[in-house]
Amino acid sequence: MTSVEMSTVDTPVNPVNPIYARRRRRDLVVRGLCIAAAAFGVTWLALILFTLFYNGLAGLSLQVFTADTPPPGASEGGLRNAIVGSIMMTVIGVGIGAPLGLFAGTYLAEYGRNDRLTSVIRFINDILLSAPSIIIGLFIYGAVVVPMGGFSAIAGALALAVIVIPVVLRTTEDMLLLVPNPLREAASALGLPRSLVIRRIAYRAARSGLITGVLLATARVAGETAPLLFTALSNQFWSLNLSKTMANLPVTINNFVQSPYAYWKQLAWSGALLITLAVLALNVGARILGAERKTK
Amino acid sequence: MVSKKQGADLAEMAVESEVGDIAAAAGPYDRARALSAFKLGDVTFYWITRLSAISVLLILGGIIISLVIGAWPAMKEYGFQFLFTKRWAPSADPPVLGALGPIYGTLVTSFIAMLIAIPVGLGIAIFLTELCPQWLRRPIGLAIELLAGIPSIIYGMWGFFVLGPFLATTFQPFMINLCANIPVLQDIFAGPPSYLSLFNASLILAIMVLPFITSISVDVFKTVPPVLKEAAYGVGCTTWEVVRSVVIPYTRVGVIGGVMLALGRALGETMAVTFIIGNSFRISSSIFAPGTTISAAIASEFQESDGLHQSSLILLGLLLFVLTFFVLASARLMLARLDAKAGK
């Protein structure tokens, strides 16, 4: 935009004219406030990242990755079980949620473009996209944990899957709608059936966008805590049994932060640093993929 | 974007490989079988996608049904009185449970958060679209978006260890002294300063929803036709006048939609709030006093609850869901109106 240059060019106005002077003063004040607002926003990010690195790096050692979570009061131990549990639940959650979201987005963008069902689903999906995640936790508690008779890792993964679906659905639909129609028409004209037009042409053309959506969804659920609080719960042991409670980073951090033990707090900071780095890396990766797409 | 040439290549490749596969499977001349394989694949794929799409509706239905079933005992026991009862005493005999405290805390924290986040978020959006030099646009935009990516438990932890102590020793005493003799304000900013308070939670919420307001505002500001802005600059408007008289009126619906979306987030935010609000069910006129929100109450008590207590917490969740549903639904309707205007 050229607005910046245009407005800063000195206009030949009479500087003592009170109306002009007042307008310019007001403009200056508002500009100052806007700059201050931007500084305010960036400062928070810098502050949070600084504290995270400062406190998190101090406790980060090999032990964090090789030892399991320590009992109360101990001064040795790591986060191995929580890290592995988190990765497992995230992978299963994304593994269930991403295909569902992908297919649902495909229906919205390819089959049901002018459908009444599509507009209803899109509307509901947009609401689920921002629905409080603790509600998802309550839902899975009622729908999975109670019937199964106890907290379990699979319930946690399902809760995450419910959060993944709307994110992937939304990006899939957006990305498929960007694929130009002549591509599909060309393929259809060659006699390709509809499902193959979608799978072989539309998916391929939108591939980086679809991956971006899955990455963003993974980033979103990797740090989710609220839906795991009463689905997967957490524990202090090394366990890979999906039908039992499973340690995971967010809930472990949640429990350690509020404890009186210095070493637990130390581990909580390290865990927080790990989660944040993972989530930010996924976000940046998704963005780079998305940017590549635009410049192509 | 994919060029036509690339597209044609893709199509060709796809046809070759697919027809090859199926022809190999069906034998060289069996056209009928190949066609029926195509048809079967088509129908299967259509139904897979359609059922996946319908699963979204099933999830919504599942959420409502499971919450209503879980909340039923509390609804039967307390009825509408639940909404207006201040006392929350799960261990009393019989337990007395009322939602007024958490509802009050939810509304107050969200209100204060929006009070802070709306002007700041819009300010950043104006800065990014009108004032910022080109080379700074991407880094600042990225920083704001990353703020949205940080998990909420990190905000909570940071608020608990860093922001809470900082506010309790600086900002809170300052405001309490400043307002000590002013009527009304002295009740709102009443001491003692506290690490855990409604205000601390509101500030964290404000920081968390800031990126939502900013990114939606930037998006809708970009829909303003440049001609309109250029015309305004052309007749000598200052940047502020252009924003106030051209950009904001043109995008008003979209901005309100973005704000509602952020409000929906703020109402339901859990972990960040749970750490720093103090989980007290008392209703205090001071925003420096501890309080609780619906989501914080659920997060901190659900695990140890049973019977009527648990059912009441689920009822709280149902209330929260209904509340956010309406806020988010109106947000989406407003944003949809703007899309229609932009001809999308």
List the defining traits of the structure above:
heterodimer; A: 296 residues; mainly alpha; MetI-like fold; 13 helices; 0% strand; flat; disordered N terminus; B: 344 residues; 2 domains; two-stranded antiparallel sheet; 14 helices; 2 strands; 77% helix
Work out the radius of gyration of chain B.
27 Å
Can you identify the CATH class of the largest domain in chain B?
Mainly Alpha
By secondary-structure content and strand pairing, the structural class of chain B works out as: mainly alpha
Share of residues in helices of chain B: over 70%
The fraction of residues assigned to DSSP E strands of chain B is: under 5%
Q: What's the order of the H and E elements of chain B?
A: HHHEEHHHHHHHHHHH
| Shape field of chain A | flat
CATH architecture of chain A: Orthogonal Bundle
Number of domains of chain B: 2
Query: How would you sum up the global shape of chain B?
Result: flat
Rg of chain A is: 25 Å
Give the end-to-end Cα distance of chain B, rounded to a whole number of Å: 18 Å
CATH topology of chain A: MetI-like fold
Number of strands of chain A: 0
CATH level 1 class label of chain A? Mainly Alpha
